[in-house]
Amino acid sequence: MTPQHWIITVQWEENGHVNARTLDGTILPEARATRRSAYLTILRTATEHLGISDPVVLFFDLSPEILDS
């Protein structure tokens, strides 16, 4: 599989405040991975990084890291 660049924006409530954060990175999906499995992996990565649970996903994009020339 080819490397994929991802962007995810999540929103969550904490102590009565609404927070939002956008993160991005790359992932090398395993053979026969689906877009859904990549999304769930990325969402888990984001929530663990931010130390949150059950965020609302405001934006998600997954596209090839390498641009065609």
Strand order of the largest sheet: 2-1-3
Enumerate how many helices there are, as a single number: 1
Overall radius of gyration: 13 Å
Residue runs with pLDDT of under 50 for 5 or more positions: none
The CA-CA distance between the termini, in Å, is: 18 Å
Mean pLDDT: 95
What structural category arises from helix and sheet content?
A: alpha+beta
Annotation, overall tally of beta strands:
3
Strand content: 35-45%
Sheet with the most strands? 3 strands, antiparallel
Number of domains: 1
Question: Main traits of this protein?
Answer:
about 25% helix, 3-stranded antiparallel sheet, alpha+beta, about 70 residues
Q: How would you briefly describe this protein structure?
A:
Helices cover about 25% and strands about 45% of the residues.
Written overview of the protein:
This protein is elongated. It is built from 1 helix and 3 strands; from the N terminus they run E-E-H-E. The protein starts with a strand and ends in a 5-residue tail after the last strand. It has one domain. By secondary structure, the protein is α+β, with helices and mostly antiparallel strands. The model has no long low-confidence stretch (mean pLDDT 95). The chain has one helix at residues 35-50, and strands at 4-14, 17-27, 56-64.
